[in-house]
Design goal:
single chain
Length: about 100
């Protein structure tokens, strides 16, 4: 797994960044809304945008968790569909992928 050392480092850095971002979004969504109805509408609109960003971050984070788990099980470079080896270039470009180019 030495060849994946840099990829593992990138995955963990991205994981930490996403966890931090999700935490910030959660804190922002929990803030009370202003009493003014116009401001309240703007805040709710902002919350909708934050929800979408939060969902995307959580989806990527889940992929990262799965990639790190596959690394632990020595299955990282194996395509989950065809069971062929995923080229290192693809793993470097998209570190949390679980499929080769053909199966993707």
């Amino acid at each position: 797994m030495a060849e994946y050392k840099e990829i593992i480092k990138l995955l963990k850095m991205r994981r930490n960044e996403l966890e931090r971002r999700i935490n910030i979004v959660e804190q922002d969504i929990r803030k009370p809304h202003p009493q003014d109805s116009e401001e309240q509408a703007l805040e709710r609109e902002s919350d909708d945008v934050l929800d979408v960003l939060d969902e995307a971050a959580r989806a990527e984070l889940n992929q990262i968790y799965n990639a790190l788990e596959r690394i632990k099980r020595n299955e990282y470079e194996i395509c989950v569909v065809c069971k062929e080896k995923i080229p290192i270039k693809r793993l470097k470009a998209l570190p949390y992928t679980d499929r080769c180019v053909v199966c993707a």
